[in-house]
Each structure stands twice: as C-alpha cells, then as structure tokens.
Amino acid sequence: MPCELLRGRRIRDLGRPKVADEFEWEHAALGEPLRGNFVESGRLRPAPAQAGQGGLRQIYGDVWEWTRSAFAPYPRFKPAEGAVGEYNGKFMSGQFVLRGGSCATPVSHMRRLSQFLSPRCAMAVLGLRLAGDV
Known about the structure:
Elements: H1 8-13, E1 18-19, H2 22-29, E2 64-70, H3 83-90, E3 96-99, E4 114-117, E5 126-127, E6 130-131
Parallel strand pairs: 2-5
Antiparallel strand pairs: 1-6, 2-3, 3-4
C-alpha cells in the first residue's frame, strides 16, 4: 500500500504533522514529473512506494490526496446566470480539494487536475499526505 500506517510514536517523530492545503501541495509538486500508477498501468489498485526513489514519492497516481482546502471559487469568481450557476454553486459547499490523481485516473486527465469531494464520500482510492514544517 502507498500509505504507511503511522503509529503515535512515529507521528510524534515528525514534529507537528498536518495535512497540506492546496497551495502547499502545489508547491511540493512543482517540478515533479507527471509519472505514477494511473489507470493505464492496469494495476487498478495503489502500488507500494519504490525503495530508493529520490524526491517526493507518489505525488501523482495511486490515490487522490486530501488537502485541507475547502473547494471554493477563485477570487472575483462570478457564477453564471441560470441553471449553470446554480449547478456550480452546489459543489462549492462542504467539499474539499483532492490532488494528484489515482490508480483509476487516466493520465490524459492529469493536467494538475484538482478534484473535490465531500468528506463522507466512500471511495477506495483516497489518501492523505502528512507534511511537516521545514
């Protein structure tokens, strides 16, 4: 599994870990190649991290990673008139941003794509990344 079970002592060793917000996730992913375990691999389940791989591991593919950022409109966003504006507005309430793609995401859909889901969503390809201050 790409997510390692962290016990209390190991988490304490990380200092004060947190779930990154969307902008921290973007900063960490900046310059990382778009490679990972996507649907094209045929694996269709998260893969173990590769030992000895340098840099940030598994930032793309395997699981969509939760951020602590609420899915909200960008500054100066104005909803469209009518049904389209009403439709979009429903998704900007109680949703959180996911980043990175999963083993069920086609690589052609990855363009620094962000997803949003309710925390109550029961999908098998979600995870999180704990970050510490440097």
